[in-house]
Amino acid sequence: MKAHHRDLLPLFVAGALDGAERAGVEGHLRECPDCAAEAAAWGVVVEELRRVPAPVPSRALVVRTLGAVERALAEREEQAWNRKVLGLLVAFAWTSIVASWFVADLVAGGIAQWLQRPVGGAAAWYGVYLAAGWLSAAVAAVLLGRHVRDEGRVA
Questions:
Q1: Are residues 144 and 80 in the same domain?
Q2: How far is Cα 59 from Cα 145, in angstroms, rounded to an integer?
Q3: CA–centroid distance for 139 within its chain
Q4: Total count of domains within the chain
Q5: Residue 84 and residue 116 in one domain
Q6: 53 alpha carbon, distance to own chain's centre
């Protein structure tokens, strides 16, 4: 067998070759005593490895592993729930801004009639105030979420 085919001998002895490769190696082993001796040596190694008992994890390791998997799954579910709730809160916040705008305009119109003065600028500033407040809350929520996510990666 050529030197670059010697890497097939351990696979041959372990029974990991397909039919064509296996037949080629068997034919070569009948003709080459050096490769046949090496294959026999690999056979001894394979037999010894088969006698090595398979490791059995301790009960404590299994319990810890299952607990870690359950915690990871619960955390993933909680993160999904948190994203849904945050999305609903943002939608509610922007709906509140739009509704507040109309209420402020209605109230400002009533106040304008009562005072007999225009207050359109006040309603616009009220809208800007609400939008800025909700926008800053959204930025704070995003930054807090990133901080919590980064803390989880470190732990």
A1: yes
A2: 37
A3: 24
A4: 2
A5: yes
A6: 35
Six-digit token string for 133: 């407040």
Q: Which of 5, 15, 1 is nearest to 43 (CA)?
A: 15
pLDDT reading at 152 higher than 80: no
pLDDT top residue among 69 and 151: 69
pTM above 0.85, yes or no: no
Instruction: List Cβ neighbours of 34 (8 Å cut-off, separation of 6 or more).
Output: 1
Instruction: Answer for the pair 127, 104: CB distance below 8 angstroms, yes or no.
Output: yes
| 145's tokens | 């979420």
The single-letter code of the amino acid at 2 is K
Residues 6, 8: Cα–Cα separation, whole Å: 5
Q: To which residue do tokens 């939008």 refer?
A: 131
Q: Residue 48, Cα to own-chain centre: how many angstroms?
A: 41
Looking at residue 141, its amino acid is: A
